[in-house]
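Reply to dn_fold:

You asked what the input looked like. This is it:
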Amino acid sequence: MFGKIVYISDSVAHISIPAGTPVNMDLMNLHIIFEDNGRKVLGEVEDVSESIIKVHFLGVIEDGKFIGGVLRKPTLESKIRMITEEELNLITGVEGEGLFKLGVSPLYGDKPIYVDINDLCSNHLAIFGNTGSGKSYGVASFIQSMFYNSNFNPYRANYMIFDAYGEYHNAFERLGEVNPNYQFKYFTTNKSDVSGELIRIPLWLLDIDDFALLLNAEKHSQLQIIEKMIKLARIISMNTEDSIKYKNHLIAKAILDVLYTNQTSASKRNDIFTIVSGCQTEQFNLEAPIEGIGYTRKFRECFLIDRSGEFAESVLITQYITSFIDESLDNYEAPNDHAFQLEELQKALDFTLISDGFLRNDKLYDEAVTLKVRLHSIAISENADFFNYPNYIDLNGYIASLVAKNNKKCQIINFNLEDTDDRLSKTIVKIYSKMLFTFTKHLSSRGAVPFHLLLEESHRYVQNDTDNFLLGYNIFERIAKEGRKFGLILNLVSQRPVELSETVISQISNFLIFKMTHPRDLEYIKKMLPNMSAEIMEKQKSLQPGMCVAFGRAFKVPMIIKMPLPNPAPHSSNVNVVSIWQGR
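and this is what came back:
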């Protein structure tokens, strides 16, 4: 079948076909060996014509091991033959400790393909493909293959699946039937879904950056407002004597600032009443009694204007207000180990509006009001329940609660986000991702508790956002760059890779590419991935559903893999129009 080598370049050899030799078109994508003075060079058939077989060099086999890349090319006199079973095993892997069966090779009679779990699961992974190409089935099959492996027990695994459309619940809900030590946990944004727990995020675990995302902050000056709001929320929620003193101190200073302005008495009164109406305490409200010498006035009565245009009780009200000012309270900090809810957060923002530097600054005041409107819209919406956590819990305790069920360890935790809009879904995913990054980064033993973030429809979240401008970083880019060191691994699943962050894509080590046809996506993948050759691009175009081109650190060479059907399957198949239309 093989003649002599008639042409050799840096990456390709052309082999002649002897006259009269029947051409076997099944050679396409199969592997051949060039033998030359004890060296073995591995190549893959990429093109066959009537007289020439074009072969792409992949690597060399030395001392029973495959090494990618070819420095010394075979000579024109090299012996050419098909790869043997033993040599093929060096590429496809064999069953053994630390490996699992990812799928089979349709080119070699469904020969099993075994992958090193560390090479695949300790590096970031991307799974791309068109709708209907088998992405969701491939994801479910990939995870099931690990957990169904009788020779491997991933008891301490932590797969956090952020499920855009609730597809994976069916695929993993019976995980415990495979092994009683396995547990599946289901969180949802659908309040009528009784099969899962409602997503609830403790507000006090969020920092300035998280609130900036939640409130859709746009300017750096708003970060200062958010920082003050968080501080006041902790103080207000305590409702202690110190907390009451602090609130009265803020109100008193704000009122005194108004009294010392050059406004008319009527304008001052309006501003003061606005402050007191928005930030009330027992001591500062319109009906609060103020004791004079031998008489009592209500707070609002002290601001009656006399004939000279002044406040009738200016001396009394000034003495009353100044009695609550205590400059030492400006440095008061509430303990961090205290819970607060949206109601306290709104009150805190109200007090922020009257605190130093805000009330008389029109620009800051307007920006604070913008945040106030957005916070209020969350507080009165159905989304408020997602941020209503019933009791105080710290970060470590909260992470532990996510991965526990009935006092047992959960290996797969599924977050169903189908009932939230794209903006809130993205924020929720970013908040959880940042929590996990913080948690893993501060573990005393680096990488002791690995987490895998599996982001279905990841193009909805991992985008080129304004985070870098506003916060100085994007959490997914930070995880992509540093997460592996701490055991936080990204698994991206997307049908539109062109919409993903280029920085994140550049840090991905392994790829499973299902069939893709959109020119922009194909061009983007080819441009962004240095090891995405024209040959791989051509391979994926002809793939059948459930097949993918796999390449990267976990794979010796790029190979076509047929994934097994998951059992049970995710809910990702098309609607049966014929059956529904006919009432079956």
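DSSP finds 20 helices and 23 strands in the chain.
Hope that clears it up.
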